[in-house]
Amino acid sequence: GFDTVFTQYLTFTKIQQFVLQLQELNPNLVKVSSYGKSFEGRDLIQVAVQKNTGSTNKHLVLMDCGLHAREWITNMECCHWLTQLCDTSSPAHALLDNFNFLVMPSANPDGLEHSWNTFRLWRKTRNTNPTNPACVGTDPNRNWAFGHSGTGSSTDECSDVYCGPAPFSAPETLALSKVLKEQEPTLYLSMHSYSQLILMSYGCDAPGLTNKNFTEQQTIANKAVQALHDVHQTTYEAGNSKTILYEACGCSTDWALAENLCKYAYTYELRDTGRTGFLLPEDQIAPTCDETSASVVTMCTEILKRNPL
Ligand code: 0X9
Ligand code: ZN
């Protein structure tokens, strides 16, 4: 069973085993497939969770985790969300009457492996770069086409926020962007850590471009913050990414909104606020996932209220 899963961080191999086991246990709910390959040839795993109810016009929610390699708690959240969706006694499962879900539990598998095996605080992908063989990888949250190479990113291959020579130069972001274009989810959630924030677009200044949906997105995010707080009294803040964190261009959620691929997009920054940072202790995996998944349930519920099928 999965009783012990949320007491220890999972490697890429363990994540792969986890989702395959979930599929085996829930064959009519869960479909595991690959949406491409990483630079080093690992599968980019996507897990579709859908319930056959006869309805053909359900909302789609796309959630990615682990775009940044060292943010291990986010991979755990995707796995936790998947178990909740399959657990018939969970409020998440009830959402399947109105929503389909597509979950990417390890959006940067090469980076995750590098973080486990070689350097715990690795952030980027693991591709080789055009000029400097000593500096590896692209920041997969600076490699998107909206504001590419702008404020908060670097054109230095050695930088942790290296944006790549061109948008979608990294196979991991190119593959994810294609899924977003094909699927056009109602809600796109990109899971990161840390800071305990729910971030909204735009986090990159673009002349003439405003998030037309901001007020409604803020209202929904505030409800999600409240639902999260209700579980373990963890304090979150929801707001514009640039205002409450920093300006960062080339991010995935900004691109998805700017391209009109989704109606709602949020970047979560999970626990903690910096005491342990990326090295969040394993005894915080379960409570972090419990509260985060509760907030995602509320987010979906609030979106459904405003967008009935
Ligand atoms: O800098 C990032 O990529 C994210 N923070 S992290 O510490 N996980 O690296 C924040 C992304 C901000 N999002 C937008 N600009 N929309
Ligand atoms: Zn991140």
From TrEMBL:
For this record, the Gene Ontology CC terms, alphabetical, are: extracellular space
Give every Peptidase M14 domain span.
8-303
Name under which the protein is recorded: Zinc carboxypeptidase A 1
Q: Which family does it belong to?
A: Belongs to the peptidase M14 family.
Q: Tell me, what is an example of a GO biological process annotation in this record?
A: proteolysis
Q: Give the keywords, sorted.
A: Carboxypeptidase, Disulfide bond, Hydrolase, Metal-binding, Metalloprotease, Protease, Signal, Virulence, Zinc, Zymogen
Organism listed in the record: Orchesella cincta
Give the Gene Ontology MF terms in alphabetical order.
Answer: metallocarboxypeptidase activity; zinc ion binding
**Active-site residues?**
E269
Span within the full-length protein is 117 to 425 of 425
Cofactors required:
Zn(2+)
The job of this chain, per UniProt, is described as: Extracellular metalloprotease that contributes to pathogenicity.
